[in-house]
Amino acid sequence: MTQKLLKSRRGVSLPEMLVGLVVVAIVGLGITKMITSQARFFSTQSASRDARNVSRSTMNRIISDLRMVEASGGVVSASATAVVVRVPYALGVSCDQSVLSLLPADSAQYASGVSGYAWRNVLTGVMSYVEASVTVSTSASIACTTAGIGVLTSDGGKLVAVSPALPVAAIRGTPVLLYRRVRYEFKTSSAIPTGIGLFRQALSPDSAEQEVATPFESGAKFRFFIGNSATAQDNAPSDLSTIRGFELNLTGVSERAVAGDVASKKEAVVTAIFFKNRTT
User: Fold this and answer.
1) pTM here?
2) How far, CA to CA in Å, does 273 sit from each of 133, 172, 215?
3) How far is CA 16 from CA 11, 23, 94, 122, 131, in A?
4) d(C-alpha 180, C-alpha 203), whole Å
5) What is the pLDDT at residue 165?
6) How far apart are CA 229 and CA 274, in angstroms?
7) What is the mean pLDDT of the chain?
8) What is the CA radius of gyration of the chain?
9) Cβ partners under 8 Å of residue 137, min gap 6
């Protein structure tokens, strides 16, 4: 009897088919939700990483510039959105009033040109800046040999002549630094007009302006450490020689919003840069 029933039954009944379809639909819905969730998670992580990278990508360049600024006269102008600083690129000592023996430095820095030089009074420790019509050229003078000052030419050191000459108060062996004026500024990005970009430009002689990183939130700014205070303030002091460092508020923004979100992802980075070239 049982064998006859099995032989007479063909295919799948309608209820069985409906149950099967429901099961497949439930499993398919679960798999779809899992894939959607994983895709959204990946997009969120990617957007967050992009936002962080906006801030991190600026660090090496700006830190290498700002931390070498000489504290007493290295800041030329300062505001929440822009700073102009004198960035040293070569250090050396004077052999006489117009000849310097420079320590090895990056040749690319020499190629960018000079804005001026600063010399340190060995009696007072005060740095004096000379910026009007300064020129630096290779020298073959024997002044350093006469003064008993070596030139590390085999290691990349240079013997150079500077004009105008150092004053008489700058005795032999006076520390001298060559510097370049550099401006950092937060303003509307040229690559992403809806965002804020951080721009860098070497000045005097002027070079092409470079957009270092973008996009930032509109609140990106500089804050200022005054004297020995460990707390930064919003406004630059009237006496710029009291600035001892900068706090950078960099809130990076992802270029695209995650699917389903209205706004782009934001990642705030706050970092402090203190001047290393200081006496007080």
Assistant:
1) 0.78
2) 31, 33, 21
3) 10, 11, 98, 98, 92
4) 7
5) 92
6) 11
7) 84
8) 32
9) 160, 161, 163
